[in-house]
Design a protein that fits this description.
The structure is a single chain. By secondary structure, this protein is mainly α. 51% of the residues lie in helices and 0% in strands. The chain has helices spanning 8-20, 26-35, 40-55. Helix 1 crosses helix 3.
Length: 77
Amino acid sequence: MKLDNFSLRKLQKESARALATMQATNNNIFQFNQKAHHNSQNWYKVVIEWYVEKYGDLPSVIGPGKNIKLIMENKDE
């Protein structure tokens, strides 16, 4: 999957769905901070990669992420 081709908004939406499916503990968030310290776009990508590794596809496509409804779903796609 080529996340570098995703728009910033697409990265934000996919990572939001992925994060909404996990327990928000210090250790869970820390795993992403270690890999993408001080770079939000890389942080979004690491979150999405974690989700894809766990469920096999993007949060909007498969697993519990596909059931997440975002408030601004169609804003600036």
